[in-house]
Design brief:
Layout lengths: L2 H30 L3 H30 L8 H28 L1
Subcellular location: Cytoplasm
Cofactor: Mg(2+)
Keywords: Cytoplasm, Magnesium, Metal-binding, Phosphoprotein, Phosphotransferase system, Sugar transport, Transferase, Transport
């Protein structure tokens, strides 16, 4: 895998994770206002984004598992950080939305 290919995958992960984060925060706002139908739709969209980010991440993992040398740079480290924080945000927001539902 070339450095350019790895950078493109990294930017995909950042993009998908960022989109998920935005949708999750908007879903929380919808829950605060009692609009659970829109909230649930946004959560589903965020999950789709996170799945896409995970798929991009798996492309890199498959390359490495197949013996390809993958050199982690700052951009991929940033992408992994983005994905991890978005996944954590999903869990926290899910709990907060459950509170608003009650």
């Amino acid at each position: 895998m070339t450095k350019d290919e790895l950078n493109m995958i990294s930017f995909e992960i950042v993009s998908y994770s960022g989109d998920a984060r935005s949708k999750l925060l908007l879903a929380l706002e919808k829950a605060k206002n009692g609009d659970f139908e829109e909230c649930d739709s946004l959560i589903e969209q965020a999950n789709d984004c996170l799945n896409e980010a995970h798929n991009s991440q798996m492309d890199v993992m498959k390359e490495e598992a197949n013996g390809e040398t993958v050199t982690m740079g700052f951009i991929m480290t940033h992408a992994q950080d983005h994905l991890m924080t978005s996944l954590l945000l999903k869990d926290i927001i899910g709990t907060l939305i459950d509170v608003y539902r009650k």
